[in-house]
Amino acid sequence: RFFSWFFLLLILASSVFLALFVARATTSTLLDSQEDYALLLAENLNKQIFNRFTLPVTVASGRVRLGDPEQYQLDDVVHSLLHGLRVQTIRIYNNEYAVTYSTNKDEVRRTDLYTQGVPEIFQGAHHHFDVLSTMSYFQAMLRPRLPEGSFQLRTVYPLKINRELYPNISEEDAATVLGALEVIQDVSNHYQISIRNQWLIMGGFLISSLVLFTLLHMVARKAEKVIAERMERNLQLEAELHQSEKLASMGRMVASIAHEIRNPLGIIRSSSEFLLRRENAVQDSSRPILEAIYDESCRLGSTVNDFLDYARPRQPRRDMVNMTDVAHKAVSFLTGEFQKRNIELVDELPQELPVLGDGDLLYRAVYNVLINALQATDRDGRVIMRGQVRENGQTMLEVMDSGPGFADDCQKALDPFYTTKDNGTGLGLPIVQSIITSHGGKLELENGKEGGAVIRFILPSASSSQM
Question: Could you tell me the pTM of the whole model?
Answer without folding.
Answer: 0.44
